[in-house]
Amino acid sequence: MGLREFFIEDRLEKFRTEAPCNLGESGIRNLHLDQLTEYLNLDWRELGKLSLADSPNSGRKDLREEISKLYSNVSPDQVLVTTGTGEALFIAFHLLLQKGDLTSLFWPAFQALYEVPKSLGANLQKVDLLPRLESKELGFGKENLNNLFQNSPKLIIFNHPHNPTGIIAEEEDKNDLQRLTSNFPNWILFDEHYRFLSEEEDLGWSGFGLCENSISTGSITKCFGVMGLRIGWLIGPKDWIQKARSMKDYLTHTVSPISEFLALKLLQNRKPLQSKIKETLCANIRNFAHATQEGKLPGIVSFKEPRGGVVGFAKLQTGLESRKFADLLYEKVGVFVLPSADFETEGYIRLGFGETEERFRLGLERWSNLGSEVIALLNK
Predict the structure, then answer these.
(1) Assign residue 348 a region: left if phi > 0, alpha if psi is -120 to 50, beta otherwise?
(2) What are the Cα distances from residue 370, in Å, to 124, 269, 298, 327, 365?
(3) Is residue 247's pLDDT more than 90?
């Protein structure tokens, strides 16, 4: 089975660069290089001394050392630097899955998390999270976690903070995971792209190490507005990471030394920028939630604030088709969102809250003033 078109990316390619208010992205609005160097107090002359030779295949050692500090009891030899988390996931799935293997994950999901396993012939076990958005309960929930482990899957994919719902692992979830993994014989992949943007003061919780056969993916790109650097990583047992590195040799082989250098400097000096980004992110989420509660955003009937990461799902008025709504919202209001149909479900839109505060505020104002026109056209 081949890979299908990537629904989300197709839409992003069409609209993200021109949108007056971009709520379709799953990351923080991207910085310019001069902004980043200012935040990091970086001397431009350091870039001038940078060798443009190939980086080591595993990633430069000082970067792997810095990444290993983000986890408990992880050595640099357990880190593989990759071209974004997309490459990390692609490698992991190809090493872990064969035709007929059961793969369990939360639904809806980011397409790469299930499309690549499907292309390898894996069977999917989907655990529906949408009812959690309709309840006052937080976290993934005991029943959903039990269902994730049901039938002893070859691979469990645990994406958190969750894209697209914004659900995080609460304390009770962590305790349940500890119990469920204690005798689990197979593999768990913790996809943890948004750890830098959690409610915790510094880093969100990582599930890596809960069991012997656990691996984790991570990145700086979406959380810090540097998606163009394309730096991600894969964490796992040392011997397994060696196999992953060998497979990477057939893909990108190495990553850009310029991207590695900037990623290293960012991780070494991340906290002031991280704090500023969280402040803007929280303000945008609060403003959207407030506007929804006051009924100022035509088409939206409910919204549960994400507890981590950049994205959340908002429920649409009954009967509205998410793609038609998203198309008209962009055309008439200038606000770009992703329809839940691009996540192969219906009745919601996915919102990204990484836009600048000013553009976000102006976008909500236009939505409030012009959104009724969108609904009228949809109801014709």
Answers:
(1) beta
(2) 41, 42, 9, 14, 9
(3) yes
Q: If we measure between CA atoms, which residue out of 96, 169, 174, 158 comes closest to residue 125?
A: 158
- Tell me the percentage of the chain whose pLDDT exceeds 90: 89
Q: Could you write out the DSSP letters of every residue in 20-35? A: SEE---SSPPPPPHHH
Residue 189's DSSP bridge partners are 157, 215
Q: Which amino acid is at 228?
A: G
Domains along the chain?
A: 7-33+271-369 (3.90.1150.10), 49-270 (3.40.640.10)
With cut-offs at 50, 70 and 90, classify the pLDDT of residue 1.
Answer: low
Task: Kindly state the helix (H) or strand (E) to which residue 76 belongs, with its residue range.
Answer: none
Sign of dihedral through CA atoms 68, 71, 75, 78? Answer: negative
Confidence grade of residue 5 (pLDDT, cut at 50, 70, 90): confident
Residues 6 or more apart in contact with residue 133 via CB below 8 angstroms: 165, 302, 304, 313, 315
- Measured CA to CA, the distance from residue 65 to residue 15 in angstroms comes to 38
Longest dimension (CA), the chain: 63
In whole angstroms, give the CA distance from residue 119 to residue 197: 31
Query: For the segment 290-344, what is each residue's pLDDT rounded down to a tens digit?
Result: 999 999 999 999 999 999 999 999 999 999 999 999 999 999 999 999 999 999 9
Contacts of 118 (CB under 8 A, 6+ apart): 1, 124
Residue 108 preceded by cis peptide, ω within 30:
yes
* pTM of this structure: 0.95
Task: Grade residue 48 by pLDDT with cuts at 50, 70 and 90.
Answer: confident
